[in-house]
Structure prediction request, 244 residues.
Amino acid sequence: MAGLFSRLFHKKKPQEILCAAVVPAAGSFTRMAGRDKILSPLGEQPVLAHTLRALELCPYITEIVIVPRRELIVPIGQLCRDYGFQKITKVVPGGESRTHSVLNGVREVSGQAELIAIHDGARPLLSQEVLERAIARAAQCGAAAPAVPVKDTIKRARDGVVEATLNRSELFAIQTPQVFQGDLIRTALIKALEEGAELTDDCSAVERLGIGVALTQGDYRNLKITTPEDLAVAEALLGWEDEA
Ligand SMILES: Nc1ccn([C@@H]2O[C@H](COP(=O)(O)OP(=O)(O)OP(=O)(O)O)[C@@H](O)[C@H]2O)c(=O)n1
Ligand SMILES: C[C@](O)(CO)[C@H](O)COP(=O)(O)O
Prediction:
């Protein structure tokens, strides 16, 4: 399987890249105490508007497919018009799991895009540097994602008792955008779903094929809004960026 995708991406220059973005935004925000994190205000704009702007500003991204819950398709279409986003090509409904939602989006990407960058709607503080590094690396090797070294000591435990202390030097927190050669991620997601795999990210689908995913330098500020305090942290980071 690995040979199938060993195309000559290393010959590509970043300016020759056509990259689509798929934005899964159809989660159920169960860890947000009932708040819809995608449309929650962050600074003066909804979380999703920050996320989309980062993607829109990237010169390598030529099209953006958004994947919200079905009932939010119309309001999100309106949000895109209100904020003047030009690269949104489709807004399609999500599915029962993140992987289903991502595949729904990936299926709507045009044939022109060689690369697909999958970025959580709930990660609004994406910088151009993190985005471009992941795209450039994926253009060379077919699959890349930003990561940051974990800061805490991580234990594996069972029934509330520690079983092991993991070697922190080998542990990374993976972020998005996760960027892949288009045929590779389509194949990987379809196979993972056919096999009933439950995945929390898209790299895992590619890893299951035995294909290596390159890590690029992420950013601790590229946080995912997961629990209510993440919104407060994101607000503080936005203010901090404005002061800098
Ligand atoms: N069926 C799903 C589940 C998740 N997501 C998206 O995947 C990203 C990461 O998921 P997560 O933060 O776990 O979102 P939620 O599912 O909303 O959160 P929770 O697990 O707390 O319910 C989010 O942008 C979320 O909207 C999606 O598009 N479709
Ligand atoms: C894709 C992801 O954001 C990478 O960090 C993360 O795995 C999503 O996981 P969650 O379980 O949906 O929070």
Notes: Residues 24-31, 38, 67, 94-95, 97-98, 101, 120-122, 224, 226 surround cytidine-5'-triphosphate (ligand 1) (CB under 6 Å).
